[in-house]
Fold this protein.
Amino acid sequence: MRIMKGCLVLWLALLARQATAQARIDERWPLDPGGSVRIASPFGSIRVLGWDADSVAVSARLERPAGRISAAGDAHVRTLGVDTAAGGAELEVHVPRGATVWVKSATANIAIEGVDGTLDLSSQGGSIRVIGTPQDVTAETMDGAVEVAGGTARARVKTVSGDILLRGASQDLGASTLSGRIVVRAAGWQRGGTGVQRGKFESVTGDVRFEGELGRGGVVEVESQSGTIEVRVPASTVADFDALTIGGTITNHLGSAQPKPRAAGMGQELRFSSGAAGSGAQITARSFKGPILLEPK
């Protein structure tokens, strides 16, 4: 992560008491526009919203009355902590739009909206949803689903079994999963480009689907061990296509070129260009035993 002027560390958990009533915390502290916010909350939900104020505001609804909340530092360096031992929390945190945000949880669902800085997000069992145009996104889950919608310069998404949905565009986009499904819907990039400039999408047993636009000279790689690979691009796309499968089949509806048996043995391969070779994007699809489909969007 890039060095920021300020750093706010926000550790959020619950110190349980034997009570049934909910406790609520509402606090606000100054924070440099380029500061950092760190949030750790094991259970419940975490929602982070970007705003234009030079401050961070926290609203927390706790399942059980909280023990204490502490804050130290100034507008450049600040540390905030709420300790908890059990129970969940519903958190809503407002941060400057350009802030760096770090969130870690065990099962909480994480939602980020309107933050333009760097995002580093992790939840073992919860879902992650990002809406907006952050500069950089790293999102990881075990079982939860991940959605990134809008436009970002760079994004890296990883899951074990959770599905991944990427909507919008990116200069540098990557997603990988063991058994989840990956769907990429690339569109015009809000920061001045078009579609995906560089993309790599990998699944072991899950399906992978890429549909939409590529940036001029863009490079997209799609791989799956046994899942179905679908590549759907506009019929007017100028690109070099390179598809290969060992035990599956290749179906091409983007042109007249048809797959051929691999020269090295079993399987099929297909290489063709829609336009002058080397003048457009590059699309590579690799599968061990799953089918590969090339279709117009």
About this structure: The first strand starts at residue 7 and ends at 12.
